[in-house]
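INFO batch 0412 | record 1 of 1 | parsing
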Amino acid sequence: MRRASILIIGLIIISIFWSSNSSTLHLSNIVMAGDKIYHYDLTIHSLTVFNDHDTPGNGEIFIKVLIDNDEIRIPKDSHYSMSDNDEVQVNWEQIFSIPSPVNILIEVREDDDGLDDSLGSFYLPNYNVTRKTFYTSNPSDAKLVISLLITITDVPTTETANTSSENTVEFWEFMLFIAVVSIFLYVVYYVGKKMME
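INFO prediction complete | emitting tokens
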């Protein structure tokens, strides 16, 4: 009787330790409440070229947007035919959401027979701007009018709550399994002992 009791107690202790560790592993793989999501809404309204870097004739101008390691060309697979002091309405918008702030680099380039010439570049600030004029690093070459809206939201707490509930159910299901096994072992031990008497 004493051995059976010790066996049951041991199984219960092991189950509690195992279940608590299992729950911790589950929680480490989810996005916890309190984390942030950064939502970006970037709009390039217009581009003005002061020096098209192409003589004679118009420059084949395009805009390169670099968001961390992702490069976007505007217009895609094409260019704007622009001469000195020309302006074009770009009206390009990009919306994306990421878990951390991001660096955004804007560059204006001239594309002629495979030879790219930079009209300058700049990084966007990490705050909201509305139709703000940005001059490239070569200020006599180009400028762009840009709007940037950044909003920050918390990760919904329901994601964490749902996962925690799932872990709680898994814990009690395992505890029930251990209890059934313990009772079964005790019955086997008791019956075997009676048969040997």
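INFO post-check: Confidence is low (pLDDT under 50) at residues 17-32.
INFO record closed
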